Amino acid sequence: MTPDETKRFDRLSPWLVAQLGAGRVEIGAMTKLSGGAIQENWLLDVVCEGGQRPGPQKWVLRTDAPSSIATSLSRAEEFAILGVAFDAGVAAPEPVLLCEDEAVIGGPFYVMGRGGGTAQARHILRDPALPDFGPSLAEDLGVNLARLHRVTPPRAELPFLPLPDAAPALHRIGQYRADLNALPDGHPVLEYALNWLEDKRPGSQGPVLCHTDFRTGNYMVEAGRLSAILDWEFASWSDPDEDIGWLTARCWRFGADARAVGGIAELDPFLAGYERESGRRVERARLPYWQVMAELRWAIIALQQGERCNSGSEVTLELALTGIMPPEMELNILNLIDRIEEGRI
Amino acid sequence: MTARQISLGLLEAACVEFNTQILPQLAPEQRYAGAMLRRALEVLRAEAQAPAAPDAALAQAGFGTAAALATALRKRETVDSSALRQALRAYVAGKLEIANPRFLAATNAAEKAAGP
């Protein structure tokens, strides 16, 4: 840690002592994880003497990054979501403590349990054992997503989550048009896709609690098994197929196009786990629609990230390169729509 | 020699120098940043070499600029048609020739292999 960071976390140990009723909390190590354009994540190893959680603890401390984006939940809201998901039997990190007092580390934060292994998509996809564990991992993802989708509104713990003001697909289309309005330049392929999505929307399902960023890269894998589902800041009430479309869209297969489930496995094992756990049969014909929605959404997010750089507010090469990715999603959209329209899916 | 040709030569030399002299020498923890920089240089080079701006494909098909077509689509003044889809495809291909020609080639090959 830098001297500034050491000073920033000066008050963390006494706060943990007070919250946990411990005699002493020794912070053994704190390491900032890479990435985290929207939030900062710190590995936090502590040893607690007495109190609610005696002994060594391996946690993650999550707080706001300097530039977060408006559509993500606050840390307190995310903490509540984690609690609901954890209680529903989803492999979400266990929420441990929430702090909204900015005097402790300079901003709201929470502490949660830590899954083992890696979340890095390229590590998972390049694992030589992927052909062996991929299908069972996909099945486990299906089981976990089904458990999450069993959570339906209203939920007293989630008063901050608005219900969609229309069918979930129409709600999203409205959101994305507003997002495009806030961006410079015109984006005719995305406008074309929005019109197509509006005209071709299927009957709505749900709403259920959706993760809405459920994809390879946002779950951890240890020894070929799912250890934790991460990054809950975009959770919302929506159509359950939105999550499946996002997970299976080409833009989140990391080049492994033949393995529809996030580049790790084909669709069948995922759907087997999902359908067994949920008791709901997923209509395969609906998924390409939600994959178009997913490609569109990622294109808009990439444009927003590029704009953070182009506007001068946060000049990084990573953001600038993300900002030139949308044509990839646009090509995927055009190909998907053609295949759907021509009955090739 | 035009200013554009001079810029192109400078960019080409920068790419060669970076790829052959600097990138191989980077420490492991700098390789990700190095790869990003190489990609940025490739994009700049492709843009400088592009025969026309991607918007030109839209204008040639009678749809005007990207901004004008986006507005017309939002207002539903331009409706779906095979001409529109073709123009959008050409426009996206033009953007990908600059931003990611490998993705364009791989995607087109996969679509061709999948067949009608």
Indicate the low-confidence ranges of chain A by residue numbers.
Answer: none
Strand order of the largest sheet of chain A: 1-2-3-5-4
Radius of gyration of chain A: 21 Å
As a percent range, the share of helical residues of chain A equals 40-55%
The major beta sheet of chain A can be summarized as: 5 strands, antiparallel
Instruction: Summarize the helix and strand pattern of chain B as letters.
Output: HHHHHH
Q: Mean pLDDT across all residues of chain B, rounded?
A: 94
Structural class of chain B: mainly alpha
Q: DSSP helix count of chain B? A: 6
Give the N-to-C terminal Cα separation of chain A.
52 Å
Q: Which two chains form the greatest contact, residue counts included?
A: A-B, 29 and 37 residues
The total of beta strands of chain B comes to 0
The shape of chain B, in one word, is extended
- Return the average pLDDT of chain A rounded to an integer: 94
User: What structural class do the secondary elements of chain A suggest?
Assistant: alpha+beta
Query: Regions of chain B with pLDDT < 50 over 5+ consecutive residues?
Result: none
How much is the radius of gyration of chain B in Å? 19 Å
Termini separation of chain B comes to 48 Å
Instruction: Give the percentage of residues in beta strands of chain A.
Output: 15-25%
